[in-house]
Each structure stands twice: as structure tokens, then as C-alpha cells.
Amino acid sequence: MEASDDELVGGADELVEPPNGVINELLNVGQEDNMQGEVEEFLGPQAEYNEEEEERKYYRRKRLGVIKNVLAASVGAMIVYSVYMGLLQMQLILHYDMTYREVKYSNLGLEDIDRKMLMGINVTPIIGLLYTPVLIRFLGTKWMMFLASGIYALFVSTNYWERYYTLVPSAVAIGVAIVPFWASLGNYITRMAQQYYEYVNYKEEHVQEQKKLPKGACHRYIIIFQSVFNIIFHLSFVFAQFPMRFVLNHYLNDNQHILFNVNSCGANISGVIPGFNTTVLTNLPRSMLLIQVESVLMGFAFLAMIIFLLLCGAAYRPTEEIDLRSIGWGNIFQLPFKHLRDYRLRLLCPFFIYSGFEVLFAVSGFSLSYGVCILGLDKLWLLILVYGLSCSIFSSLCLGLLRLPRWVCLMGGAAVHAVLLVALLCFSLCPHPDKSTQYLGPLLVIIALWGLGTALNKTGVSILLGMLYAEEKERLDFVYTIYHWWQAIAIFIVYLWSNLPMRAKLSILLATLLLACYCYWVMERRLASKVPFRLPRIPRPRHKVTNHSPAQIVSHCQTYLRSAMSALENGLDAPLTIYSEGERSDVI
Q1: Under DSSP, is residue 584 helix (H, G, I), strand (E, B) or coil?
Q2: Exposure pattern of 209-234 as b/e (b: 16+ CB <10 Å)?
Q3: pLDDT tens for the 588 residues of the chain, in order
Q4: How far lies 94's CA from each of 81, 84, 275, 311, 371, in Å?
Q5: What's the DSSP call for residue 362?
Q6: Residue 103 CA from chain centroid, whole number
Q7: Phi-psi region of 50 (alpha: psi -120 to 50; beta: other; left: phi over 0)
Q8: Which H/E stretch holds residue 577?
Q9: Buried residues in 535-566 as b, exposed as e (16+ CB within 10 A)
Q10: Cell inner membrane among the record's keywords (predicted)?
């Protein structure tokens, strides 16, 4: 018995190894408890997570994205027009030279091709009102800008092979793209201002529910973004002179040869420069040099396309773009014409026309009939460069509308241009190549002041349209289409009047400016008197929700109810099945 008791005591002291299965079960239970605790800790409320702070960071990134979109659209448009105007200027000067035409393209008739090319650029946009809104709504604002920049790049590429069947069709394509491109840009910049307001005030109830913005809510951002766009875009006049300054100027004849038969300049002349010599080049540029210049311009045109494609975000949410298209293409076609019933747009039409007049007069009328006629062709680049710098710098003055009334910009620019037009009506002289440098300073001052008026006019009109229709985001493309269509009409008129006397051109400009100021005053007076304006009703979006008839929908509902009752009677073991006309269509 003692031995057995000792064995028992000894057995109690020794650790008996349990079976392996028991150990694994214990470990699994412990691991499951640990994993469940880790999951609960991960899914539970985080002490370091601040929902309000994360939301604030998210909308800050959204605001930075809007600023990036504005800068990208501005730089892209500036590059497109730098390339377009620089190439067109160099091309027209080369084709004007009789030696260049006879030696390189004797049997092509480049002079006739240039006339038809300019006709394509200037005449085609007058039908832009018919297709611009349809294109913008079909493609979207961003993709319309991208496609238009591609058409400008196509125009550059056709200059590698200068033929009638390359230059003229590409010029017509540019004429087709001008109004949609500018309408998309105006719409895009204004939409970015609206989006920026929404991202700043994301906690407001009307923003969260995507309702119409309060009146005047985003005017501040419209002023800033439109000013920034014009500051950057007007630099295109500066960069467009690089091919002229660094390439073509080295091949120009001296002023005594070019201006030998010119007897008068300024207000006394008719046409552009009567008596201007048809041989302006001392020797012809090498073909390889011209190909290199065109290749550089082509590279920048592709860069602009990439900027529009990769750096510009969408102007509307996907659901908003679907709604914009879903009102019907017939309604989209008609709405620009119906918007002309709004007296605000009708009374601004003279300003739209004058806006097209004055820019073309600066780069073709004053720069040639006053600048080149007196100073010589080698100073053309300097005149337009000063004009572009002036436009860019003075566009920043429109930021003063943050504190001043909105009429200050338009009336200020109109006052500057009115004084200059009266002065130009009295300014005429006979060219003296030996004394031409003494007129350089006054002409640069005049072109700089004209740039001041252009900056206030162009930026002021864009800001005014954005402020008038800031709360109507579904109408912006129609409004900017009307604006740039009237500008296209003005471009066409300038193309037609090229052979008129200079005093007639200046008188038309002055009369249009005075009429524009009067109409604008009438518009502001009506708005101050709270005269109601007429806006066309935009139809509701017509979404295609279902293809089933009401009878089929009722039949499906009855079948579903019978299936549900049958499943309940069977203890919810059977699936709920919907049948349509005896065939299974879905299982719930």
C-alpha cells in the first residue's frame, strides 16, 4: 500500500503531457480571440482619426485641383495662339514676297491660296452659332478644347507641304473651331469659379444638395479666374513674335527699299499700305531652317494638346453632363437663338462686336498702316510684343472689381480707346526712313495704351458675362457661344473692310464704341430698376429609365408578391423568384 501511495504521489507531481489535439484546440481558441480583438480594434473608432480634419484636407486638394485646371487651360490657350499667330504671320510675310513665290512655288499661285486661306479663317466662323452648343454638349467642355487645339496643330502640320489641298482645308477647319474653342474656354473658366466656391463652402446646405447658388456668391472667384486667364493668354502676342524676331528679321530688306514707293501713312491712306514693295526679303530662308521652325511650333502645339488632355479636369460632374445632353438635340440647337430674347445679351451685342473690331485693328490696322508704314517691317515684332505685354499687365487691373463697381473696367477701356481713336483720326504723315526712329517712342506709347483698353475691354466683358449668369451653369455654353459668335461676325466685317480708307475704319470703330457704351448704360439702368429679363425655359432632362410597359411592371410586382408569400409559407427555405411570362428572370 505504501508503495502504491508513493507511486500515486509521484504521479501527481509529474506533468502529464496532454494529447496533441487538445493543445491545438487551445491555441486556436487563443488565436481566434486575439484576431477578433485586433479586428474590433481596427474597425472601431480610431482615437487619432479626425473626420472633420480629413474632410477639410480633401476639399483643400479639390481647391488646388481647380487652380491647376485654370492655370492649365490658360497656358494651353496661350501656347495654341502663340503657335497659330506666329506661324500665320511668318507664312503671310514669306508668301507676300514675289521672289519667294516665283522661285519656290512659281506655278502654285500662293497669293491666291493665301486669300482663300484667310477667307476660310474669317468667313467660316459666322455659322458657328449653328453647331457650337451641339458640339460642346456632345463632346463635353474639356474634350472640345482638346479637339480644337488638335485642329490648330493640324494647321501647323500642313505647312510642311504647302499646297492648295493642305492649306485651305486646314484654314477652313480652324474657322470651324474658333467659336467652339473660345466658347468652351469661357464656359470652363466660369465653371471653375463655381466649383471653387462649392469647395470652399462645402458645408453649406445648398452646396450639399446641389441646388442653385445664391446670387452673387461666386462673383469674387469669377473676377479672379478671368483676370488670371487673360493675364496669361495675352502673353501669346509676345511669344508669337519669336519666329519673326529670331528668324525672319535676318532676311528682311532695309526700310528704304521696302518703303520706297510709300507716299503717305496713317489716316490719309486707303487699304493697308499702298505702295508697299512686293520684295521684302534680301535672300530666301533655307528650306531646312523653315522646317526646323515649323517643327518647334509643331512640338508646342502637341504640348498644348497634352496640357488640355492631362492637366485640365472635367468642367461638370458626370451626372450633370448627362443632364445637359438629355434635354434633346433639337432644344440644344434652338436655345442659343432663344437666349437672344434676354435684353441683357441683346444690349451687350455692340460690345461683343467692338471687342472683335479692336483686337484685329491693333494687330493688323494700326500695326501695319501706322507702325510698319512709318518704322518699317523690321519693327513689326516690337509693336505687337509691346501690345501683348501691355494687355497682359493691365489685365490685372480688373482685379480691382473686387472692390469697385463692375462698369469701371468696360467704361475705363472705352474711354481710353475713344481718346486714341480721335487722335488717330488726326494723325497722318509722310514716311522718312532716315527720321523714322523719332516716331518709335510715340507709336509704342499708343500701342501700349491701346493694349490697356483691350485688357479692360476683353477681361471686363468676360467677367460681366460670368457675373450675369453665375447661377445658371446650364446656360453658360449658350451665353459664351453668343459672345464669341458676335466676335466672329466682327472678324468677318474687318476682313471685308480691308480696302476701305483708314478714316472710314476709324469712324466705324468710334461709332461702334459709342453705341456699345450707350447700350451698356441702358442695360445697367434696367437692371438697377429691376426690369425683369426673359430667360428661355430649359427642358427637363429626359432619362430613359426602363424599357418595360406599365402592364409588365404590374405583372412583375404581382409575381414577386406571390413568390414572397410562397416562401413565407415554406419557412423561408425557398428562394424568392420573379417570373415574367413563364420564364425565370431573377432570383432573390
Answers
A1: strand
A2: eeeebeeebbbebbbbbbbbbbbbbb
A3: 444 444 444 444 444 555 555 555 545 555 666 666 666 666 655 556 677 888 888 999 999 999 999 999 999 999 999 999 999 999 999 988 888 888 777 667 677 788 888 888 999 999 998 899 999 989 989 999 999 999 999 999 998 888 888 888 999 999 999 999 999 999 999 999 999 999 998 888 877 777 788 888 889 999 999 999 999 999 999 999 999 999 999 999 888 888 888 888 888 888 888 888 888 999 889 989 999 999 999 999 999 999 999 999 988 888 777 777 778 888 888 888 888 899 999 999 999 999 999 999 999 889 999 999 889 899 999 999 999 999 999 999 999 999 999 999 999 999 999 999 999 998 888 777 667 778 899 999 999 999 999 999 999 999 999 999 988 888 888 999 999 999 999 999 988 888 899 999 999 999 999 999 999 999 999 999 999 988 888 887 776 554 555 566 666 666 667 666 666 566 544 444 444 444 433 333
A4: 20, 16, 18, 36, 19
A5: I
A6: 41
A7: beta
A8: strand 577-580
A9: ebebeeeeeeeeeeeeeeeeebeebbeebeee
A10: no
User: Which residues touch 141 (CB under 8 Å, ≥6 apart)?
Assistant: 184, 187, 188, 191, 314, 315, 316, 477
How far is CA 554 from each of CA 342, 504, 557, 565, rounded to the nearest angstrom?
Answer: 47, 75, 5, 17
Distance of CA 194 to the CA centre of its chain: 15
The answer to whether 454 and 277 have CB atoms below 8 angstroms apart is no
In angstroms and rounded to an integer, the radius of gyration of the C-alpha atoms of the chain is 35
The number of residues making up the chain comes to 588
Place of cell 472710314: 504
Contacts of 269 (CB under 8 A, 6+ apart): 369, 373, 428, 501, 502
Question: 436, 442 in Cβ contact below 8 A?
Answer: no
